[in-house]
Structure formats: C-alpha cells, structure tokens
Amino acid sequence: MNGLMNGKRGLIMGVANNHSIAWGISKALAAQGAELAFTYQGEALGKRVKPLAAEVGSDFLLPCDVEDIASVDAVIAAIKERWGRLDFIVHAIGFSDKSELKGLYADTTRDNFSRTMVISCFSFTEIARRAAELMSEGGTMLTLTYGGSTRVMPNYNVMGVAKAALEASVRYLAADYGTRGIRVNAISAGPIRTLAGAGISDARAMLSWQQKNSPLRRTVTIDDVGNSALYLLSDLSRGVTGEIHYVDSGYNITSMPTLEALRT
Ligand code: NAD
User: How far apart are CA 142 and CA 179, in angstroms?
Assistant: First the structure.
C-alpha cells in the first residue's frame, strides 16, 4: 500500500539522533507521503536533527523544551502560521534523573518525581490540548510508553510510575477528543538501544532478557515501532482510540522465562 499519509501534516517531537524511536516513526511516515515538522531539545541536538529532517524532505525545525511552556506555545504558533492545521503529533519524549534509574523506587526524590512526571507524562497532555486546536478536521496523537508501567522492571522505577500516568492520560484524552474525530493512542515498545534507553541501569541485561524470553525471541527495532506507528497514525486504524499497543515481540504476554532460558 502506497501513499497512506499523502496530504497529511504532522509534528514529530523526540528525535535526538538516528537511533531515536521518533526517527523510526518519521521514516515510516515520510515513506508514505507525510509532511513532517520536527522539534529538537537544544542547539546541540538540533545539529543532529537538521540533516535527518532533510533526509525526509523537511526544513521545518523548531526548538522546544517541554519544561518551558513558552517554547511549546511557540511551536504551535509556528505550525499555525505555516500550515494552518495539523493532522497528527508524535510525542516520543521521556526523561528522569539517571541517578534514580537504579536502586530502589522507594528512594525517588520529590524533585525528580515531579520533573519526571512533567516531562514524561504531563507534557503530552499540554501538547495534546494545544495541537487539538489545530485539528479542526480530526487527527491522531501518539505517545510512547513501556511495559514497566504495569509490571515491575528492575531500575525503571519512577519512569514506570510516569508511564502508568501517561497511559491513563491516553485514555482520558481519547475520551475528551473522540467527538472531535481526534484519536489518541500509545505504543508500548520493547527495549531498544537509544540515548534514553541507555540511561536505565543494566539496560544491556534487559535487552538480552527480552531477546531470550519474548515469543518472537528477538528485540524490536525502531523500524518495527515505525511501521506500527504508521498504522496508528493513518486511516488504517480509524476505529482505534485510547489503545496501548504493544510492539515488544510479545514479551508482555509471558508470565515466566522460557524453559530454554531456565535451563541455560
Ligand atoms: P531518545 O533519547 O532518542 O529520545 C528521547 C527524546 O526525549 C530526546 O529527543 C530528548 O531530546 C527528548 N526530551 C527529553 N527531555 C525533553 C524536554 N525537557 N523537552 C523536550 N524534549 C525532551 O530515546 P527513545 O528511546 O527514542 O525515547 C523516546 C520515547 O520512547 C520515550 O518516551 C521513551 O521513554 C520511550 N520508550 C523507549 C524505549 C527504549 O527502550 N528505548 C522503550 C519504550 C518506550
């Protein structure tokens, strides 16, 4: 199927480099004809994002740090001025202090709890509210989550709590905006080697565990996530909203390690 996203314009938030999940999603969308705008967090990342955007035919780049709400407003204003409307957004943003992505969840500090929640969870709600104003003909919104939201994963700690709240936000936003023809979904991706992923202690061990214990016996790639995102952001999924869609080689359905893994 070709041209699934022809005529659609969307905002991609969260490309840091060519390993980013948001980059996998961007490639899949651009290959189907989508026109993309990108945000980047700070000038150093901007230098990496600019050539990537050019690869998918975009010169529409905007700085944005979601801790600074004025920068979010400026992004929305720039899109309104240049495009006048928006068909989709991708929110692939997460952050927590690395020093708390190890050890006990119980030791999470108040400051890092708040910061993690604002950047990794509430920013989606703040962006959704603003983006919805540009979706007068309906639209789609997508965020990224991880299975540490519903089950305990070592070291994921406060990010797991933030992702649980993010997933609940997806359901509430889907209910809020359904009558306006705006769909809101999340992809729960299996572990992938990225900048953010590397911040979690023992990330390598988690990758190897999922590779050995998921039904497909492999980890997922940013292109796997990109193709599923294409489905959720295109009209192919027009009956789907409020969904947490797992792209994790099936790991979430398992209840114990495989017998091969137990025997080795
Ligand atoms: P990444 O490091 O490539 O992307 C994270 C992005 O968040 C970066 O572009 C960074 O600039 C942005 N960001 C962080 N703080 C920000 C702020 N204050 N303002 C604006 N942007 C900010 O890593 P990734 O793994 O591609 O992460 C994308 C999303 O996918 C995150 O929400 C992450 O939690 C989620 N996720 C990752 C994995 C994984 O294993 N890598 C698995 C499941 C879900």
Answer: 17
